[in-house]
Amino acid sequence: MPSDLNYGLSLFGGRALQWIDEEAAIYAICQLETNYLVTKHIGEISFEAPAMQGDVVEFGLETTKVGRTSITVSCLVRNKITKKTICQADDIVFVQIDPETGQPAPHGKTLEELEQQTKNEIKTLNL
């Protein structure tokens, strides 16, 4: 959309970062089955190709690490039609918090459990 573009008429990097944070948060919320997550850290972001007005972008997310109170994901943003990578964001860390204290709280999940959950979901979709 025009409101998402920079002066070069390509996707504004700040808007891409906003979308990445939102999509990664939704993904992490679904993985940990909790709404009480906050963004702690977003690591390196590499912009590789522009997205132009009218392009449709897609997000691919993957869990890379699970801590006692945290989940770390990576996000690949690419052009839906051409499959060209627009940007890659690694090391996006979310922390579960206790809603009453605002302090980190254990979520009780492991990486192995989340990987098995994903495999089961894929099997269900392939029926």
Automatic annotation (TrEMBL):
Family stated for the protein in its record: Belongs to the acyl coenzyme A hydrolase family.
CDD domains referenced in this protein's UniProt entry, alphabetically: BFIT_BACH
UniProt KW keywords: Hydrolase
Secreted recorded as keyword: no
Coiled-coil segments on the chain, per record: none
MF GO annotations: long-chain fatty acyl-CoA hydrolase activity
A GO term from the CC aspect: cytosol
Organism of provenance: Thalassotalea marina
One Pfam family linked to the record: 4HBT
PROSITE patterns per the UniProt record, alphabetical: HOTDOG_ACOT
Record's protein name: Acyl-CoA thioesterase
Presence of the UniProt keyword Hydrolase in the record: yes
Family annotation (Gene3D superfamilies): Hotdog Thioesterase (3.10.129.10)
Biological process annotations from GO: acyl-CoA metabolic process; fatty acid catabolic process
Record PANTHER family: ACYL COENZYME A THIOESTER HYDROLASE, HOTDOG ACOT-TYPE DOMAIN-CONTAINING PROTEIN
Domain of life: Bacteria
Annotated HotDog ACOT-type domain residues: 1-100
